Amino acid sequence: MAISTNSDVKVPDSRSLGIDDAYGPFINGAFQPVRGDTLDAVAPATGDLLSKISRGDAQDIDEAVAAASAAFPAWRALSYEERSALLIRFADALTENAERLAAIDALDTGRRLFETRLDYQLAASQYRYFAGAVLTHEGMGRPMPGGYMIAKREPLGVCGQIIPWNVPAIMTSFKLAPALAAGNTVVLKPDENASISTMEAAKLAAEIFPAGVINVVPGRGAEAGAALTAHPDVDKLAFTGSTEVGRLVGTAAAKRLIPATLELGGKSPNIVFPDIDDVDAVADNVLYGAMWHNGQVCFGGTRVFVHDDIYDRFMPRLIERAESLTVGGPFDDTARLTCLVSEKQATRVLGYIDIGKNEGAKLLTGGERVTVEGNEQGYFIQPTIFEATNDMRIAQEEIFGPVICVIRWNDVETLVQEANDTQFGLAAGIYTRDLKNAMDTADRLQAGSVWINSYANLVPGLPFGGYKDSGLGREFSHEALNMYSQLKAVAVQYEVGAPWFSQTYNG
Ligand code: NAD
Predict the structure, then answer these.
(1) 226 and 372, same domain (yes or no)
(2) Which one of 137, 214, 237, 363 is least enclosed by Cβ atoms within 10 Å?
(3) Residue of the nearest CA to atom 42 in ligand 1?
(4) Cβ atoms < 10 Å from Cβ of 59
(5) Which residues are catalytically annotated?
C-alpha cells in the first residue's frame, strides 16, 4: 500500500462551498431558526469544524409532520405529469450543483471526491428514473359483467425517512424520489455524521417543490429519529442503516400497523470459480466490491470465496493489487482509499482487525492505521485482507471498513452452504465463464442482488434490497413505487340491479 505524496491537492474552503455556519431544520419550505443544542459537523480528515447542525427534537418532528400532512392533499392531487416535471427540475438542479455538493460530501464524510461526484450522477438518475417510472405506474382495470373493476394506486400520506452517513446523496435520492413520485409528502432525517449536503439539497428543493412536501429534520437517531418513527401521523416508515436500528424502526411500524421499508446491513459473499479467464480483472473487481467507499458500503463483497484450484494464482494478484492502492486525502486524485467517517467507525474497524488476529485468521496484508500528511486527524486504514473461515466473527459480522475475509472452497455444496450461512442476505457476486453455472449458483444464493462477473452492478430499474436480516422491501425500481402506494379496489356496476335479497320477504 502506498501513502500519497501528492503535493498538488487543493482542498476547498467550506465557506467557498456555500456551507452555512449553522443549519436549522427545514420545515414547510423554509429553514427554521436553530433553537437549543447543535451537533458539530466536522471534517473527519482534518478535524475542521464545518458547521453547526440543529439537534432536532420531538417538537421539530411534530412541526415537520404537521407541515407534511398539510401539504399532502394538494401534492397528491397534482397529476403524475406535474409531479414528474418537478422531479426532473430537481434532478437538473442537483446536476447543476453537483460539483459543489460533491465537494461538501467529500469534506463532511472524508470519502474521495471522485466517488462523491459519482454519487450525484446516481442520485440525479434516481429522480429522473422515478419521474419516468411513475408515468407508467398504472393500476389495473378490466370489464366485468355489467360493469368495470379498477385497482387504483394511491399514495400513503406522510413518509418518515431515516438515512445513514455513507452516501448521503444516494440515500436521499433512494428515499425522496419514489415517495414523491407516488404522491406522498416526506419528513427526512439525515445522519448526524453527514447532514450538510442534505440541508443544501433542501435549499434547492425550496425553489422547486411546494412548501411542506419535503421537510428535513437533522439530529440524533435516539432523539429526532425515534420521535419520527413513533409519530402517530406518519403513514409509512423507510429506513436505511444498521440491522439493529432497523429492528427498532420495524417494531415501531408494526405497533402502529404501518408499512416499513428497511435497507439494512450485509456481509456479502463474492465467489471466484476456478474457470475465470482474467485473474487480474477479477482481482480488481473483487477489490472494488469490498474497498469502494473505504468499505463503508452495505453491499460490500467482504467474504471472498476463492476456489482451491485457482487460489495460488489468484491470491498473489489480489494482495499485490491491494498493496498498490494509494491511501490519501479526500481531494487527492491519486488516492483510492481515504479516511473513515469518524473515530467511532475507525475504532470499530480496528477492533475487528484485532478480533480477526485473536481468533486465528491469517493477516495477509494491511491491518494498520496510517497517517496522511495534511490530514492528520483522519482515520486512514490500510486495505486489509485476512484468510479466514466462515465461522469466524470477522466473517460473520459487518465491519464496514476496508477489510476482506478470503475463504477457500473446493466443492459447490459446501460453498453454497457457507455463502448462505450468515444472518444477512443483501448481495452476492459470482465470477465464472460458465453462465449456466453462474445462473444455477445465483438461484441457490440467499441474496437480494446477485452480480455475475461485475460486482455492484447497480442498474436503475433493477430492484435493490435484502433477504433475511438485510431488510424488507425493495428500492431502485418500480417495486419502490409499489412500496410507497397502496391499492384501492373499485368495483363499478353500471346500474343498480333488480332486488333479489329481500325478494322473499316482499313477496
Ligand atoms: P445506524 O443504524 O446507526 O444509523 C442510521 C440512521 O438511523 C441514522 O440517521 C441514525 O441517526 C438513525 N438512528 C439511530 N438510532 C435510531 C433510533 N433509535 N431510532 C431512529 N433512528 C435512529 O447505522 P450507521 O452506523 O449510521 O450506518 C451503517 C449501517 O447502515 C451499516 O450497518 C450498513 O450496512 C447500513 N447501510 C445499509 C444500506 C442499504 O441500502 N442496505 C445502505 C447504507 C448503509
Answers:
(1) no
(2) 363
(3) 298
(4) 12
(5) 263, 298
